[in-house]
Amino acid sequence: MSPGRKTPSGRRRKARPPRRRTTTRPQFLTVAALLVVASLVGGYMVLNRSDSTTPTASSSGGKGTTGRTNSAADDAERKWDGKTKIIGDGSTSYTGPQKGRLKAEPLKPGEKPPQFVVFSWDGALAGDDGLFEHYREMAKKYDAHMTFFLTGIYLLPKEKRTLYDPPQHEKGAAAISYPTDEHIRTTLAELAEAWKEGNEIGTHFNGHFCGEKGGDDWSVAEWKQEIEEFNSFVENWKTNTGFKDLPALPFDIKAVTGGRAPCLEGQKNLLKAAKDFGYRYDASSGGAYQVWPGKKNGIWDFPLQMLPYNGDFQALSMDFNFLYNQSNGETDGDPAMYPTWQQETIDIYMKGFNRVYYGSRAPMFIGNHFEQWNGGIYMNAVDEVIKNVCTKKDVKCVSFDELADWMDVQKPETLAALRNLDPAQTVDWSTLVK
């Protein structure tokens, strides 16, 4: 994402070109050329398939991390007397275990895994277009949960911007615009309702710095600094905004157990930093094939994925990837092409879904932004995919942390067998799942 001027909708993104990489995986397909790009990011594909099943490390330090929990089961064991516990200045609270979560159970011998689909949103700003509320409503209508990755400075007024001390940049600097007071209020309201409805609130960190002095250049200590800044903005938004009339968020910072780095940059050092904050997963990998995920450094690695595009071409499972390849990165391309591009986007998503739904059942990860690019065709496409897939037999549209719950309770030998499957492989589940 590049710096941009605030628009009336509260959006602030400007396209930047991607870097490209050609890659192959002979086990199941050859990619002659790779159509990639990550979130408004110019990020590129880094293919990595980890088979580590080392348990996620417990929190050992970092601001606001004392007593962090690492799973829904741990959360359920926290002592709670049924009363809301207001925390700190009243910005956050503990209201008990989150309701309506997926019940994670190990597969029985011979049982076919559910088809998990995760819809995730980078930034999670509630702008004038009502998209945050729209996808909350879509989730409720189709019995789905989603992951909303909050950008921390979206809870920080512009006049207080110097409270943000980003790594390798001056205080108050950011590659995106600070929100208006009204957008902070609407974002807080949407975050609260989203969590109460069973959705996940994750982190998209803060200043959205990419390239030079961005995530790839940050040390482990600097990533810890960025996470601490995020935690502070969530835990102290009442003090920072002065909005004493608003209720506390119905969750505390311990509910944030993973995130996606801006531009998909810096995962190596981010993973080392994240352990100190009790993070269970990371969605910052540059991209991978549609295979069952593993762990990196004891943390679940949930990457964006390559989906069938056209012949040997593969497209990354994020709206901006389609934007870049359809309209050369222009957010307002040729309107005459909108119907074609929209259907093409739907078809790509569905091809990727069908490949695993009728094959390996590997989870499908979709990353998006609350944006009306090219007339809103990517939002329309996601709406159609939600309607089409979340209603199918055995499909569970879940958040990343719910998927982590499910992965955590599976037998190591089951996970190892699943990770050896190719996406479209025909599977004899009676022999694979012991």
UniProtKB/TrEMBL annotation:
Organism: Streptomyces graminofaciens
Superkingdom of origin: Bacteria
Low complexity composition bias: residue spans: 50-71
InterPro entries recorded: CE4, Glyco_hydro/deAcase_b/a-brl
Residue ranges with Basic and acidic residues bias: 75-86
Region listing for Disordered, in residue ranges: 1-26, 48-109
Sequence ranges of Basic residues compositional bias: 8-23
Protein name per its UniProtKB record: Tat pathway signal sequence domain protein
